[in-house]
Design goal:
The protein is an alpha/beta fold. It has two domains: 5-149 and 337-373, Medium-chain alcohol dehydrogenases, catalytic domain (Quinone Oxidoreductase, Chain A, domain 1, Alpha-Beta Complex), CATH 3.90.180; 153-309, 3-Layer(aba) Sandwich (Rossmann fold). It has helices at 45-52, 77-80, 144-147, 152-167, 180-192, 203-212, 225-236, 250-263, 308-329, 345-348, 351-357, and strands at 5-11, 16-23, 33-42, 61-65, 68-74, 90-92, 96-104, 115-119, 127-131, 136-137, 171-175, 195-200, 216-219, 240-243, 278-282, 301-305, 341-343, 366-368. The strands form three sheets. Strands 3, 7, 8, 9, 10, 17 and 18 form a seven-stranded mixed β-sheet that branches. Strands 13-12-11-14-15-16 form a six-stranded parallel β-sheet, sandwiched between helices. A five-stranded antiparallel β-sheet has the order 4-5-2-1-6, covered by helices on one side. Helix 4 crosses helix 5 (180-192), helix 4 (152-167) packs across helix 9 (308-329) and helix 7 crosses helix 8. The radius of gyration is 22 Å and the shape is globular. The N and C termini lie close together (11 Å).
């Protein structure tokens, strides 16, 4: 045992997905690197595909291999080809996490002993080596659990607001808006005076957002959902939407509703629809299947993907540093997350626990705590 255990994921050409825990050597930092003893790493929706791909986790089983257990789950033949780029490769997993710097290179001594959060794509392990510039130091009164989710959700929420400003929109719509991310987006919009239309699917979710101060909360299961959406868009002038569903006709509904709202005050005939650009960004895949679009919103519209990494590359290091500093300062308030439970590395690959965190229930968040495996 080397003392550095790590979860890895392997999809095989034979139609299996295997989660296993391997032992690595303890890393040694170069001059511009640090070694972090990982204390907490969230299981985000963006971690699900690297972790489990298209595996049917409901049929997963624990298999003993020597002194270790592996989780083996089947992958349907029609999905094996969709995963061909990663077949028979052992992949590290875990986008982000937090821990204490236990070793630092010559140019990173200022981080030694500090609690930092980082994003590496391999945070589900006990010790991680990372470039010093990727580490965000936190205040002394911040816990590892609080710091663990400092990148993906907070910077995505800030990215939505920055995108709205850069593209000149007045207000925006957010689907699956009661999630941990959705609550951060709402808090930011309330702080900055931006009208936000929150689309949810239950009364319980509506209450969560209204208790936080949301003005526009619409249940997509209501019979008059589309009419409510148009009314809210007409009142706010929303021409931007961020969609976490990613399949079906939600993007079409959002664009069509924007067009109806814009047409209320239009004068004269415009063959090509309203001349104001309407934009939907798909950033999640809560549903599977194709995106269906109609033809009822003229020609001034767009549907595209929104990813955090390209956004950060676009804004540059200086602006990214400003956003990170804000996250660190507001990690207990604006960017706080509600933690449902913590799991060790071994517990995280147990099918019984996978069945708990994979459904991505609203408001639930699980943390992997690698040091529990000591």
């Amino acid at each position: 045992m080397s003392g550095n255990r790590q979860i890895v994921s392997t999809a095989t050409a034979d139609g299996e997905l295997i989660l296993s825990i391997i032992d690595n050597d303890m890393p040694t930092p170069n001059d511009d690197e640090v070694v972090v003893e990982m204390e907490a790493a969230p299981i985000n929706p963006s971690d699900m595909f690297p972790l489990l791909g298209f595996a049917d986790y409901s049929k997963g089983k624990l298999v003993t291999d020597g002194n270790e257990q592996k989780m083996v789950a089947p992958v349907s033949p029609q999905f094996v080809d969709a995963m061909r780029a990663r077949l028979d490769q052992t992949l590290p997993v875990g986008n982000e996490g937090s821990g204490r710097v236990i070793a630092a290179g010559a140019n990173a001594k200022h981080l030694e002993g500090k609690l930092v959060s980082l994003v590496t794509g391999q945070c589900y392990q006990q010790f991680v080596k990372a470039p010093a510039f990727m580490c965000l130091p936190h205040k002394d009164d911040t816990s590892a659990e609080e710091a663990a989710s400092s990148y993906v959700n907070p910077l995505t929420a800030l990215g939505f607001v920055e995108t709205l400003k850069a593209e000149g929109h007045k207000a925006m719509v957010h689907t699956a808006a009661a999630s941990n991310l959705g609550q951060m987006v709402l808090k930011l919009c309330l702080q900055e005076g931006i009208d936000l239309i929150c689309v949810i699917r239950s009364d319980e979710q509506a209450k969560i957002l209204k208790d936080l101060g949301a003005k526009y909360v619409i249940n997509s299961n209501d019979d008059d959902f589309k009419d409510q959406l148009v009314d809210a868009m007409a009142e706010t002038g929303a021409t931007l939407a961020f969609d976490a569903i990613g399949a079906g006709d939600m993007a079409d509904t959002l664009l069509a509703s924007m067009e109806r709202a814009l047409s209320r005050n239009a004068s004269g005939l415009n063959t090509y629809g309203s001349d104001q650009h309407k934009q939907v960004y798909i950033y999640g895949r809560l549903a599977q299947g194709p995106v269906t679009l109609g033809q009822s919103y003229g020609m001034h519209w767009g549907v595209g993907g929104w990813l955090l990494t390209p956004f950060l590359q676009k804004i540059g290091m200086e602006k990214m540093g400003e956003l990170q500093a804000r996250v660190a300062n507001e990690i207990k308030t604006t960017f706080s997350s509600n933690i449902t439970d913590t799991l060790s590395l071994s517990e995280a690959i147990d099918p019984a626990n996978i069945a708990r965190y994979m459904p991505k229930k609203t408001g639930e968040k699980y943390l992997i705590t690698p040091q529990k495996d000591q």
